[in-house]
Amino acid sequence: MAARASTFLALLVCLSTTALIRAEDPYLFFTWNVTYGTISPLGVPQQGILINNQFPGPNINSTTNNNIVINVFNNLDEPLLFSWNGIQHRKNSWQDGMPGTSCPILPGTNYTYHFQVKDQIGSYFYFPSTAFHKAAGGFGGLRVNSRLLIPVPFADPEDDYTVLIGDWYTTDHKVLRNVLDNGRSINRPDGVLINGKSGKGADKNEPLFSMKPGKTYRYRICNVGIKSTLNFRIQGHPMKLVEMDGSHVVQNTYESLDIHVGQCYSVLVTADQEPRDYYMIASSRFIKESTNATGFIRYEGSSAPASPVLPEAPTSLIWSLNQFRSFRWNLTASAARPNPQGSYHYGGINITRTIKIVNSASRVDGKLRYAINGVSHTNPETPLKLAEYFQVPEKVFKYNQIVDEPTTENDTKIIVSPNVLNATFRDFIEIIFENHEKSMQSYHLDGYSFFAVAIEAGKWTPEKRKNYNLLDAVSRHTIQVYPGTWAAIMLTFDNAGMWNLRSNLWEKYYLGQQMYFSVLSPARSLRDEYNIPDNFTMCGLVKDLPKPAPYTI
């Protein structure tokens, strides 16, 4: 009888363990071999960064709450990090892959990222965040599909395509980096790519995508470039916008879309035209000499060539600004959870702090630097997050070197220093971006999505709040700021960690136009932030220090 009881108890333990294992969210495992390789996307052989011999890198196809595990082998001759544009890493800035949060993966070594796409859906991408590597490749698509039980506000498409558009230089990334290190600006990009191709090379007669007549397809379009806003359009086919930076949007139809650096849009396209080939075009905006890339979509069963007459891109800034104002959050659609997006009433929350961000450029010791509120960020040898976690920040950086309301002096006088601003956990914040420069600006905030409530010409004043969209502004992670305009965003700092705010224009990012928000939970609890991973690489001042006591519940 005792033996039977023991067997029964063992069976119960086994069943409960199995249930626990099955209850855990699924894991996706990847191994990446990162190498240099010769590529010729604009017809000029050059050194590119490949992942598993692919340029662009492989797509990551995941579903809400999946655990993503990526073992990265760095076979370059330089330290390397990867970051995940738009993935929020809830409670886990350890996996954000920015120089302020992580020690780099040294040449000849490997590191395993492990993060969860918690409570997110939508279209994203990854990229190398170190040493101007992004100008050589190493980027790829990252999609987060909705769970089967969560309704999506459109019918399942026939297929789901990733379209990575971006400007491109034929100059080696090390040469470009050397130009910047010597205090000079890099020239305009040499061209534009669509999925690593320009439409002008030997493979120009090969279709990028195919469509069956009468069927509807989803295209996820991300601007992975380093400088240029791009206008995207498909010959003869309107695009129904359905998702933007991880949010379902009101489904308006557009002939073309301005996609700024770092942004991702999802559109539905129906193959309802005469069966033949049709061009898709990505062309640069807001520069004097526009360049473009083309690729074509082939209707299955057809061999008729595409018309050589390409649809023209818009030319004015006002057109782009009006398009931004047409974007609306879909209040009734579910996102990652069953409740509608609009159940979060951000417009009724009291603002506890207003931070104005002003970008500027000047020279320091004769060299070009870009700054936020007069501080040009530089990365110390010890990552900011590690210095903070090991409680030695005063040996690495100084908090709050910028103020919430910059003065005109901050436009011309620049200091070079790590730029870290304290933010109070769970405060509801308003951030104003003012662009006093003559070129486009695009800002991205890691760890969060925010409500893009306004863009207007001139300078911001508190009276401008009456023009905010406090009902259905799109929740997103990247916002453009046109020359001579301001943009306002609102968000709750509810994700503890060290989070990078940066210009997506890579020359400006590299030369200091970035900063970090330190968001600390006073409880120092696992409810708010995860402990440092066991496999985390140590470097700098903390390399040989004992680990602090871990957080507990």
TrEMBL record:
Organism: Papaver nudicaule (Iceland poppy)
Sorted UniProt keywords: Signal
Entry protein name: L-ascorbate oxidase homolog
Family classification: Belongs to the multicopper oxidase family.
Highest taxon listed in the record's lineage: Eukaryota
Cross-referenced PANTHER family: MULTI-COPPER OXIDASE (PTHR11709), OS01G0816700 PROTEIN (PTHR11709:SF27)
GO molecular function (one): copper ion binding
Residue ranges constituting the Plastocyanin-like domain according to the UniProt record: 33-147, 159-302, 382-522
Signal peptide limits: 1-23
